[in-house]
Amino acid sequence: MFNKNNMNHLMQEAKKIQEKISNIKKEIAHMTKIGEAGAGLVKVTMNGKYHCIKIEFDNSLLNNKDKEMIEDLTTAAFNDAHRRITEEKKNKMSSISPEVSLPDEITSMI
Fold it and tell me: Residue 106: what pLDDT?
């Protein structure tokens, strides 16, 4: 039976989850991840909002002057950083409540 006490408890739990989500959003916004390609020849640093902060090239790569390879490695490093942030978001969101499974569509909005 659904009563007022159950409703109050549900509302309290919803508020706790909302606060956790808010805190996680702040953590994610301030985190950075580094994606790598070519065994570290190219590194892309990205923040939790998927903004590229820095791109680093190993000197040996620049001496090579192979434009296509540099472009490919940069793309791969960028995608690796994106993947790492997405995984971190999913991990943080899953820590909110093991009983609550949020769809990827919701997680990606955070």
Answer: 57
At residue 107, the pLDDT reads: 55
* Per-residue model confidence (pLDDT) at position 9: 86
Q: How far apart are CA 67 and CA 56, in angstroms?
A: 15
Question: At residue 57, what are phi and psi to the nearest 5 degrees?
Answer: -120, 135
Number of C-alpha atoms within 13 angstroms, CB side, residue 18?
6
Confirm if 21 and 64 have CB atoms less than 8 A apart.
no
3-state secondary structure of 10: helix
Domain assignment present for residue 89? The answer is yes
**What residues in the chain have per-residue pLDDT under 50?**
none
For residues 102 and 93, the answer to whether their CB atoms sit within 8 Å is yes
Question: What's 50's DSSP letter?
Answer: S
Q: Could you give the number of structural domains in the chain?
A: 1
